[in-house]
Every structure is written in C-alpha cells, then in structure tokens.
Amino acid sequence: MSDSDSDPNEMTLTGTLFAGKFDVVDRIGEGAMGNVYRARHLPTGEWVALKRLHPEHASDEEVTARFNREMEATANIRHENTVRVVDYGESDGSLYLAMELIEGRSLDDVLIDEAPLPARRVADIGRQIASALVGAHERNFVHRDLKPENIMLTVQDGVSDFVKVLDFGLAALIDDESTKAARLTAQGLRVGTPLFMAPEYIEGTHSDHRGDLYALGVVMYMLVVGKAPFLGSGYQLLTRAVTETPIPPSQQPSGCEPWLESIILRLMEKKPGKRIQTAEEVERLLSSQQAVTLFPFEREEATQSSTPPPYLERPTPASMPPQKSFTPPRRAHYSPPVQKGGYGPLILGAALVLGFFGFAIGIFLLWPVLYPS
Question: Which of 23, 95, 268, 300 could be joined to 53 by an S-S link, Cβ 3.0–4.6 Å?
C-alpha cells in the first residue's frame, strides 16, 4: 500500500528525516493507532520498524495511554523471543516507537500456507512463545492480544522458526488499578481479538496472566489442527468460547499426539484455576515432551516414511545427553499346566515299593497280636 492511500498527514513521513534521527524509507504496515515504517536509525545505522501514533489521536487520552503502555512494556521486556526496542519518544506532537526490524513471516501466514504442522514444530514454537510470556509476566506485564498476527517466525543465529512476539499495544500491568478503566475501547468494546480472549475476560470477571496462557492454547490448537477451535463472528463467537468445549485435536482429521493434546486442552480450560498456571510451567512441559516423549514417536515413524524435513531432524548422538534405556515390564500371561514326561514314572514306582514294604512290616508287627500262640 502506498502512502497516497493513507491520511494526508502521513504522506510527508516517507522520505523524511523523522525526529532528527530516522531516515524513513517506506511504509510497511498500518493499524488503528498508527502506521509502521521501515527506517534507518542514524545513530546506530540499524534498520528499524518505526511505529508512529496517528497525529489525530494525539489528543485522545485513552489511545495515548495505550500507546504509552506499549512503549513501556516493549522497552522493559528484554527477552530473545520478544521484539527489541531501539528507541522511543515524542516528536512533532506524535509518539513513536522504534523496534528491531524483523525479516520473516507472521504465524498467521504460516497457518494459511502450511497448517496443520507436525507435533514437534508446534511444540517448539509454543515453547518459545511461552518463554516470551515468562519474560513479560516476570515484569508484571500481560500481553492481552496474543494471536498469530502478533507472532513472527524468523531465522536467527542459523536457527529457523525463531519466534518473536510483537505488539504489546494492549499490554497491561498486572493488578494495576489505573489500567482497569482502559479495558474498554472508546466504542465500548473489549480490547483484544475475540477468538483468543479467555472466557473470564469475555465475561468481565478478574483476568490475569492466565489469559495469555489461554490464548497460547488457542494458537497451538490452530497450529496442530489447521483451523480455529470455535467458528463464528461477533457475539456468536464470544458465546461459544464461553460455553462450548473445543473438539479434542486428536478427534480432528489432522490428529494429535496425546501428550501435546493434553497440554493444549489444559491451556484452554474455561476456569483459570484449572489451566496450567504459569508460562514457565508451559515452557518446561513443552521442552521435556519435545526432548523425550516425542522422539519415540519419530523413531517409530522413521521406518515408514522418507527423510524428515529439517525441523524434524533430531540432535546427533554426540550432542544428546546420555539417557538410561528403559524396557517396559512384560505382561504376565497364564497358561494351564501341560502334562509332560520325565521323573513322574520313577516317583510313582518308588511310592509303590515303599507302600509294599510298609504293608509287610505292619503285618509282621501285628501278627503276634492277631494270632497269639
């Protein structure tokens, strides 16, 4: 999309020197709050994604507060799976946020082009998203709008499918009373994307970091199944998310390994108390299952399939920690006794001989009593 399609106030940004330190090249995206530009940060020479709040929103206290929360959240969450902030501030009456420029694909595009994905790939992507949430939750931030569009897959240090979580525009401080009033937009609608909103948030009850875990469960469900757990739009979708139980992934045409299905469904529990409680625990579960439980399935399938794609290749034996072999106990089977030849006849013969001699000795001893002279 060219700048000519945008607000006239935005037309002059491309090709200009913004805030005295950003050489703006072109626009790469737009949203309700502002446009995103590709620019070079002159002090460092780094290419960045420059997000600038729309000038017409400068006087809107709620929108400004949301943008400020994004700047604060993204700048304070320093994690390898979270987009890195290069600079932020205010210029010419508009707020801006400059982040590292991510070259890759959104998880939304991956879903469209490739889903359903293999179990190990889903586990690895989910583990990295959970790790990013650990970094946010440790600093008392919840994302509140985790969805495939806000998750990028890139290549970093030779590792493909490296996750970067974006867009903390709806992020809120946990238990911060000052942010509770901002849960509704100016139009009276709850912020966030309905499909990924936890039931307690839809119902307007207390919500916390476990809402992010619910959203992660929905994202993983879609990756492994290839479609959303609930279909519909607007009120219908919200109602289904609160009242209906999703069809287990294993019952979908794509199928699902039992261990992965268990994690996904536990994340999507309606009641927050029944979910996996922390992102750290999710990360641990996905890491252990990926490293241990999944390998037997892959070895079993390896004899029936061709060479797996790169993301299914296992570490070489030299790089894997030694593991104890485990042989499951055999189930006991009952078989009725079978008569066989052997020592049986000898034992029977000996018993007969001993019986004869015992009888003879008994007669000899009793004879004087029975027939006295």
Answer: 95
Q: Is 167 a catalytic residue?
A: no
- Say whether 120 sits in a helix, a strand or coil: helix
The full set of domain ranges for the chain reads: 3-100, 104-302
pLDDT digits (tens, 9 = 90+) for 224-283: 999 999 988 788 888 888 999 999 999 999 999 999 999 999 999 999 999 999 999 999
Q: Of 87, 145, 167, 212, which residue is the catalytic one?
A: 145
Task: Give the angle 330-332-334 at the CA atoms, nearest 5°.
Answer: 150
Q: Is the sign of the CA dihedral 316, 318, 324, 327 positive or negative?
A: positive
**pTM for the whole thing?**
0.68
Task: Please state the three-class secondary structure of 179-195 as a single string.
Answer: HHHHHECCCCCECCCHH
